[in-house]
Amino acid sequence: MTQTSYRLGVDIGGTFTDVVLIATDGTIYSKKVLSTPRDYSQGIENGVSALLGELRIDAADIHEFVHATTVATNTIIERKGAKVGLLTTKGFRDVLEIARFRTPRLYDIDYKKLDPLVERSLRLEVDERIAADGSVLVPLAQADLEAAALVFAQAEVEAVAVTFINSYANAGHERLAAAFLAQRLPGVPVTASVDLLPQLGEYERTSTTVVNSYIRPVVERYVSSLKARLDKLGIRAPLMIMQSSGGISPGDVVARQPIDIIESGPAAGVLGGQRLGMHIGEGDMIVFDMGGTTAKATIIEDHAYALCPETEVGGGAALGTRMIRGAGYPVQVPTIDIAEVGAGGGSIAASDAAGGLRVGPRSAGAEPGPVAYGNGGTQPTVTDANLVLGYLNPNALVSGELTLDVDGARAAVAALGERIGLDPTQTAYGIHSIADAAMLRALRGVSSEKGRDPSQYTMLAIGGNGPVHACTLAEAAGMKRIVVPPVAGLFSALGMLFADVEHQLVGAFYRRLQDVDQALLETAAAPLRARGLDMLACEGFSDPAQQRLTLYADLRYMGQTAPLTIEVPKGERVMERLAEAFHGEHQNVFGYASPSEPVQFVALKLVCQGLPDQPRMPQRAQRGAEKSVARYSRQAYFGKAGWLETPVVARNALNEAAVEGPLIIEEYDTTIVVRPGWQANRDSWNNVILTCTAVSE
Amino acid sequence: MIDPIKRELLKNALITTADNALVMITRTARTSNVKNSMDFSAAVCDGKGRVVAQGLAVPVHLGVVMPALAACLDWFGDDIQDGDVLASNDPYSGCSHLNDIFTFQPVFVDGQRVAFVSLILHHSDLGGRVPGGNSADSMEIFEEGLRIPPVKLVEQGRVDRDLMRMIEFNTRVPDRVMGDVRAQLAALGQAAAEVHRLAASWKPRVFVEYLDDLIDYAEILTRSSLEKLPDGEVEFEEWNDDDGVGHGPIRIHLKLTKRGSQILADFSQTDTDLGGAVHCNRAFTVSCTYAAIRTVLDDAIPNNAGLYRAIEVVTKPGTFVDVVFPAAVGSRGQVGFRLRSIVLGALAKLIPGRLPACAGGSEFAIAASGEDDAGRRFLHLEFHNNTGLGGGPTSDGQDAGPYCIGNLANVPVELIEAEYPIRIEEYGFLPDTGGAGQYRGALGLVRQYRFLSDNVQVQVRSDRFQSRPWGLFGGGPGVGAKAWLNPGALDAEALPSKFIRRFKRGDVLRAEMAGAGGYGDPAKRDPSAVQEDLRQGKVSQRHADEIYGAG
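^ inputs. structure came back:
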């Protein structure tokens, strides 16, 4: 018997912890266990040891462990972070609390923004001032620093953030102050904002630094406790954590800079989709991820996802939209650009005073959950509707571990239908379609932002509910092709195993393009390069062939708000070609370019990747120990086509030959509903491919 | 027979179309202002010009679409063809101020006009005597820029190049404005095509029936929401400090009558208008009224003509809130905030225990222009309309809490300093300025500017120096606004609420913006809340002793 080695991916959600194990030959095993909110690492231990036990795999054969976690976000939402002290420039103590004055909810007179993470009494001022050009207007007042150190010590703060006005132009005062406080407050991590985000924008920089300080001790504790558990299990592979940008990074590194992992889980799904697309030749995709409470849509264009420079944390998905932000604390780190709507399996359907039917934004969440879960839910949800329509197996969800109460679901849907004058089937189908309409807004939104139509993309349907809604949603959006990857329901846990080690470094560089030549640009980038190479070497990528450094410049027209990130070309005429690339991209994104207007650098970014010596993507993937569903059929409802006797099969019953819908493909972690007018086949990577042959409605 | 599911799906599809048009505008417009202030809106109307669905929009655009479209329909009558784009910016043809260009495109199916799509976009400059068109002291609309009556900007698919040139020659920033006009036309055309695609998949008769029903649906929801509110008649009045040309204070009076499922807002006892540009036309008053009333209604009511049916607004021509031709209206934004707070005040009296006291802020706007030392011209615009929320029935007004019907972001200090010869010396809370109460109002804010080049022209439009943000049910008003030239220096001078003047190099402008109103008797304030405010430095010991008898 040859020695097989394995890689483990673990994705923690609010309700479930997903564990995916993949062998070198592409065999996939998975386990879904309940999350353990008191200490999430406990759930990981439970899931991993159960899976290894079942498969009789030796922990020593795990040579990689990648993890996506919500610990950073939860710390904010549950307000369990550190007591933080903030030191700012005299006159600007309230910047953090004033924030941006944006509400995500028009007409909601009761809306209040989140309270600041540092109360006013712990936001202290120091007399000092740097001008926008970096010159010192007021020297740093030593006496104020002494006083601040005393207050912070007395208050027993657990972390300190230092943010001075214009520090991005001259970091001197900030670094001096941070060093002084670090010396006076032993054991308390002190962060200068420029070391985290050397960029213009005092509120955004302050918020980013404060969020980092606030969550850092919690994430540090989490990482060390998780490492202890991996040791206990005998797993010797280093702990790697998924970052919001789509790369992975060692646990110790993200523990110091936990703002990088806020969108860890969602990023893993998109990254996995992008890598899968590379493998199977799908360059333009919309990754559609529908879970229990939210649905997410992400565009992949020409094999690349877009990064946005900012995310918000702690605001909740139902608040805010792509266009009106302001619900959470802004954090400026590169984050995969994902659109989210509050529609999922748990979204509640209700009637209104005018006999209308609404779905969401309220959600039954995990507790009590849909009526069918029998946990006390009384209001019908999208999942209840899908059950009534015959899409979901009435006997089992999650591989038989949860039996569904079909009668309860049907009664709840019927009662709602009575209030609006529709029969239970019409009502259930209506709930399903209205949920699609909410998700379509996200899909249309992300594609319109690119100036394109969803019909030009292939859909990658993932998440527990994604493949249930994929066909109807695709029809509503005019999309003709759907890919449902293996373990679609826990695809994030698989996807993170395809990611590369990556660090995104940002350097301050606020200058007019015309004032910069190639030598100056290289001088400015040099410290970033040195830092990046150092980090990669520490992680075992010391051979230059394993190091890929890509330099980007954030550029904008003078006076514009949002910069564009442009790769700095190599070779000759660098500045000219950089300017050309900027004008071209501006034309592309905004529909116009103004080559005569002055262009400005906002920042430099260096992306440092550690390249593996073996491909991260197996040649094909198959599910180990897959249960074959005995071929049977059940009644399912398809709108105008009515109730149809629908065959129910397992994924491995399909091959390259197309099978006409209606068809239901039942899996451990999701259900693929193939409507009439669609056909399904299985490709060599074990994806289910759905193709629209006719529009059924 | 109307199928509620089809109706819900159609409603969603129409809103998605409107939102999409806005996404496209944000993507293609030239002015970064578009992204920052979101001063635009998109709507789908039926063939008769009634709003059926409106996308995310600046709240004061709620209800402005119909009067402007009605004026276009009046003018063109039957002469509206497929591929036409009707446009106007004339406040005396239903629009609201000259910077907002309204555009409408009809949608025909089988020869029948089944819908209009509408797109309103704020343009940065359309001429006039002051850049940006926001001056408080204009007397006539003719001083404010290019006035576009209902015209066909596009006729059966052909852009009217003469009209486009006319616009181009009447703006200080032609590149930007023409780019934005083209972006507006492109997004409008896309939205019209989408609505056409949608409508064409229905029988025209049935499509029209469902549009009708969506309006009825909104009306039923609105009325059912209104029925849950107590009946009654309340009066509320407030004063605008002045009108920008020396008259004041000006009384704005509202009698709000709510009976069953109908609400009547009567402004007819408001003071007569005497001039200036700080006042508004009827369409804008109506919009502000809808926006404020909307806050006490079911959040899910579609923004359409059905909502408006249940709300009647009465104004008297020639008053401060219903100005007559040829009055200037460029600074109407200021009174718009005032109108919303008056309607909310009346609602607070009508529905005790539901709404907070008056939001803080002095509707402060500043335009600073001049030349930097390198000889480059600059124009810096900033709006700080609100400072925080009024004390409410169960909690303090949130300091720096965002005001839901005046959603506008502040500008980063570092951005201003990097771009303009201006330094911001202070931006923070003013302790002791929140209105006293069981639940105190939010603190006022200070923003202090130092000008770093010679001869900077500064135009300020603000208010609430005398007329302070009101408290409710025994709560006190927030501390009023103040402005200073060179505070603490020998040449220190108190400045008025509205002015245009030249600042020298090194001059300082200190703008202290009003705090919000308090709610309930200050004597009932929880002593621990007073202690907490003391601890956070949000009130001083003296203030705590005087107002709350702290100890």
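Chain A touches chain B through 74 residues (CB under 8 Å). DSSP finds 16 helices and 36 strands in chain A.
thumbs up if we can close this ticket
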